[in-house]
Every structure is written in C-alpha cells, then in structure tokens.
Amino acid sequence: MSGCCGNDVKFDGASAAYKRALWVVIAINGVMFFVEGSAGFAGQSMALKADALDFAGDTATYAMSLMVIGMAVQWRARAALVKALSLFAMGAGVLGFTAYRVLVLNDPSAEIMGSIAALALLANVVSALILMRFRDGDANVRSVWLCSRNDAIGNAAVIGAAGLVAVTGTPWPDLAVAALMGWLFTSSAWSILRQARAELRAEAVPA
Predict the structure, then answer these.
(1) Which of the residues in the chain have pLDDT under 50?
(2) What pLDDT was estimated at residue 105?
(3) The predicted structure's pLDDT at residue 26
(4) What are phi and psi of 134, to 5 degrees?
(5) How far apart are CA 127 and CA 148, in angstroms?
(6) Fewer CB within 10 Å: N-end or C-end of the chain?
(7) How many whole angstroms separate alpha carbon 19 and alpha carbon 198?
(8) Rg, Å, the chain Cα set
C-alpha cells in the first residue's frame, strides 16, 4: 500500500489485499445486477434498470481490473480506456432509454423502486467502504473507485425518486434520476479517460 499514498508513484493494485477486495466487490455487484434488473422490469422502473446496468458494468470493470494487475502501465492505462468507453456507452444507453420512456410512459412502482434501491445502496456502501483506501491509485485502480462512488450516488437518488413518484403519482422523478445517472456515467468516463491518456503520454516520454 506504500504506492497508494506516495507522491511519485500511484498505487497499481498489486497487493493481495486489493485483489481480495475486488473479488468480494465483484460478487456483490454480480448478484445485485440480477436482483435489481429483475426488479426494474417487474416495477417498470427506468432508474432501477439503469442502476442494474451500472452493476453489470461494474462487474466487468472489476474483472478487467483484476486481469491487468501486475502488467505494464501501458496495459493498465489501456484497460482504463476500455472501461471509460464502456461507461460512455452505458451513459448513452441510459439517456436513450430514458428518452424512450418519456414518449412511452409507464408508471413505475414506487414500492419496488424504494425497497430494491435501499438494498442496492447497502450493497454499494459496503463495496465503497471496502475500496475506499484504494481510491487514489492509477487510472485502472481509480476507475474502480469511481464506479463504486457512482453506485452509491445512484442508489440514493433512486430512493429519493421513489419517494417523489409515490407523492406525485407521476414517473417523471424516475426518469429524471435515470437521466442523472446517464450523465454521471459519461462524466466519470471522461475523468478516467483523461487520467489514462495522461499516464500513456507520461510512459511514452523517454526517461
């Protein structure tokens, strides 16, 4: 963990503790993808579907992070670039689905939204706490932290949207949260992309 807090070399994930943390978080996210995705369709909630997609993306992201640990910085940065592009794609998909729901509105179930989002929030808070001490690493490690942070923010927003859906009797809060999560995906992707490109440029400069 010395590289994680150093000023010159960022933590690259090459520690047994970090690998164990990733395996635990992969399991949590894989289970929640199926749970929340099923609930999203059952409850007609676009926000739950968007968050389930985030769980799927995170599962793939963490698996990719495990694969490139110990490799050269170029490979770790390239893996981060791939993950950034996947986040861009998810953001675009969520925004597209949200636009479709605006045209074909189905009232989401506030009860299902709230209960499943609360479970997802618990899962993501646990994941974020597990990964917190690794959040300041290289682009590959940092992308894992950003995904975990996005999850927690998204779940809290879905819970708020569920309350507003119940109060207003309209699906608009659900759609607004889904759009917010789409923006969150794309902004995080841009952040990861910039750091990964900077690492690739730095590695290309002769010593």
Answers:
(1) 1-8
(2) 53
(3) 92
(4) -105, 10
(5) 7
(6) C
(7) 25
(8) 18
155 vs 20: CA distance, rounded Å: 24
Q: 170: which 2 tokens?
A: 């309209």
Contact yes or no for 191/81 (Cβ under 8 A)? no
Tell me which DSSP letter residue 71 carries.
S
**Per-residue tokens: 39:** 């609930």
Mark residue 206 as left, alpha or beta (left: phi above 0; alpha: psi -120 to 50; beta: remaining).
Answer: beta
Burial (0-12, 13-18, 19+ Cβ within 10 Å), 17: exposed
Reading phi first (left if > 0) and then psi (alpha if -120 to 50, else beta), residue 45 is in beta
Mark out the alpha helices in the chain (DSSP H runs). Answer: 2-5, 16-42, 46-68, 73-103, 110-131, 139-168, 172-204
Report d(CA 128, CA 2) in Å as an integer.
Answer: 20
138: phi then psi, degrees, rounded to nearest 5: -70, -175
Q: Give the largest CA-CA distance in the chain.
A: 62
Positive or negative, the CA dihedral 21, 13, 187, 49 is: negative
Q: How far is CA 147 from the centre of its chain?
A: 3
**What is the length of the chain?**
207
CA–CA dist 130, 118 (Å, integer): 19
What are 134's two structure tokens?
A: 């690794």
Q: Take residue 14 and report the two structure tokens written for it.
A: 């090459």
Cβ atoms of residues 189 and 88 within 8 Å: yes
Query: What would the two tokens of residue 74 be?
Result: 């170029």
Nearest alpha carbon to residue 49 among 158, 190, 187: 158
